[in-house]
Design brief:
- One of its GO terms (molecular function) is deaminase activity.
- This is Enamine deaminase RidA (YjgF/YER057c/UK114 family).
- Keywords: Signal.
- By secondary structure, the chain is of the alpha+beta class.
- It contains three helices and six strands; from the N terminus they run H-E-E-E-H-E-H-E-E.
- The protein has a six-stranded mixed sheet with strand order 1-2-3-6-4-5.
Length: 160
Amino acid sequence: MRKYHLLSFISMLLVTMFANAQTATSPVQFVNPAGVAKPNGYSQCAVIDMGNSKMLILSGQVPLNNKGELVGKDNFEQQAEQVFINIQKIVAAAGGKMQDVVKLSYFIRDTKDLKTLRAVRDRYINTQQPPASTLVQVNGLYRDDILLEIEATAVIAKQP
């Protein structure tokens, strides 16, 4: 009987130590940087410690300013500009630059806006070495007045 209690105690101790070690050194942080609207029910960005660098996985960015107000009602170019401003603010808050963006995933309501999207994008990215990308035309987004949403992934080298 004592052997069982001792094994049970040791097992509980190891589980507790492992759980505490995992939470204390978690390689992932979920952040909502200043300068962009604070979302309800999710984080704007997950930051993953990769040793010599960190990876940022951004939630889909929409054309809302830092107060949560729509920018550019019925104007695709203004909405795209605000989305890239939001991406830039989140990347900068983590110590990065837009050149650190390695992947963009676009969700747009109408592909007729693709030329405008590319023109806005090219003001923010390295056009000589553009990030990988995916573009999907969608029937709708979470609000009817939002014309596009963009997800981004960035990898930022840590300073020595």
